[in-house]
Amino acid sequence: MKVVVTGGGTSAPIDDVRVITNVSTGRTAAAITEHCLRRGAEVWHVHAPSAQLPFIRSARFNLDDPDPRDELARLQGLWREWRSVRDRLYLRPLETGTVAEYAETLRRVLTEESIDVAFLPMAVSDYEPIPQTGKISSRLDALSIPSRRAPKVIRAVRDWAPSVYLVGFKLQSGVSPDELIRLAHDACLANRADLTVANDIQDVKAGRHALYLVRPDQPTVTLSPGTDLAARLVDQVWEWAGKL
After folding, report:
1. For residue 230, which of 51, 36, 45 has the smallest C-alpha distance?
2. What per-residue confidence (pLDDT) applies to 4?
3. Residue 85, helix vs strand vs coil
4. pLDDT value of position 243
5. Structural domain boundaries of the chain?
């Protein structure tokens, strides 16, 4: 299986020294990539400059561990796993993280490689500022930032790779599960996606993070909260994509 995963958040310049971005860390994308690699896939991981990276995100020594030998054993296991999969991982970093750069990087991967599954959890800006030359004065009491709508990159994926199993993501804030599922269903149709993974950021912050797997004309599957949420998502997508 050949897979592309995108992670982190895009950014756009406001002036020569400032950018606007979002709160995405790339953690979900990194976890998805890790589990795809464990399942034997080749993975092209497209990521924003500051996004968390597969395996590297966990390669920190926990100074709060009461027994450093346990932490050392964990890091040694992580190193061995990384060595066993690294030849199947192709990192594709974005230099600036703009929507245009993301679109071009994703297009190249999808058109140059025979990708089977595309997971697109990258938080792509809906609007981008119209950048100003120089630096906006810091003496202003209020600042308005003129912006324009950014292109929906996911809507071009089906043109670049007609047969790919396309997994989109829909993040909302403070909506009911029914509304979240409805919005995800609409996104599936608009994006020509096989599956839209929906969740609510308020649930993430509250520690009750669940995922709703929404497909056109199919029952919604709910993945309950847990530390293995990304792994269960990959396992389910493997099952559905394998039936195509």
Report:
1. 36
2. 98
3. helix
4. 59
5. 1-132+147-163, 169-244
Low-confidence ranges of the chain (pLDDT < 70): 243-244
- The pLDDT value recorded for residue 12 is 92
Give the dihedral of Cα atoms 43, 234, 206, 48; nearest 10 deg: 10
8 A C-beta contact, residue 197 and residue 121:
yes
What is 1-132+147-163's CATH topology? Rossmann fold (3.40.50)
130-158 exposure pattern, b = at least 16 Cβ within 10 A, e = fewer:
eeeeeeeeeeeeeeeeeeeebeebbebbb
Task: Provide the token pair at 92.
Answer: 């594709």
Phi, psi of 61 (to 5 degrees): -75, 125
Residues 6+ apart with CB under 8 A from 170: 180, 183, 184, 187, 196, 197, 198, 199, 214
Which residues is 12 bridged to in the sheet?
Answer: 20
Structure tokens at 164: 């790919």
Concatenated DSSP letters for 146-189?
-EEEPP-GGGGHHHH-TT-EEEEEEEESS--HHHHHHHHHHHHH
What is the pTM (predicted TM-score) of this model?
0.93
Q: Select from 46, 224, 176 the least CA-distant residue to 121.
A: 46
